[in-house]
Write a structure and sequence with these properties.
Blueprint (H helix, E strand, L loop, with lengths): L1 H22 L4 H5 L9 H20 L16 H20 L3 H5 L1 E5 L5 E5 H27 L21
Antiparallel strand pairs: 1-2
Length: 169
């Protein structure tokens, strides 16, 4: 099971790079414009992804991150946000690498943002966070498609093998 989540962590890193590469060519107005997406803009969507990753991985490691709101802006500009994303994607991989098989299937308890306790298992929480990343990257992908007429292929298929062949990428 650990190998599965490590594969997802590596896919996440690759997919984020694809999205950031594509978003990096947008002009400032398009990148920051309110496009009526759930987190308004490309910048808002990418900030949300990083913020929630920090929230969850803080729970996993005990280095708690107090998320003030789901639409918090962690970084005001693209370059700083991208740099933080690169560092955090490495952190995600390192955290998953450090988990044992027993850790992954163990019960996991945390406090929700609304202050209520919640319990599940770590594997379900990891599934939630990787699914959440895919969901919001899909929104960023749609914004890119609308703004540029195209967006990078993000299919897991391109990165599902452990050797990360360059098939189709």
């Amino acid at each position: 099971m650990k190998q599965h989540f490590l594969r997802l962590a590596r896919y996440n890193q690759w997919a984020n790079k694809q999205i950031y590469d594509a978003a990096g060519v947008l002009d400032r107005e398009d990148y920051f414009a309110d496009r009526r997406a759930y987190f308004k803009s490309m910048h808002g969507t990418l900030n949300h992804l990083l913020a929630v990753d920090k929230l969850w991985f803080g729970r996993f490691t005990g280095d708690l991150y107090a998320l003030p709101s789901y639409d918090v802006i962690l970084h005001d500009d693209y370059d700083a946000l991208r740099a933080a994303r690169v560092v955090f994607d490495e952190h995600i991989i390192a955290v998953v690498e450090g988990m044992s098989e027993a850790d992954i299937v163990a019960p996991f308890n945390w406090i929700m943002m609304n202050g209520k306790p919640y319990a599940s298992t770590l594997d379900r929480c990891l599934t939630q966070i990787f699914n959440h990343q895919t969901h919001h990257r899909g929104q960023a992908h749609t914004l890119l498609s609308q703004l540029t007429g195209g967006a990078p292929a993000l299919d897991f298929f391109f990165r599902m093998n452990d050797d990360f062949n360059e098939v189709g990428a």
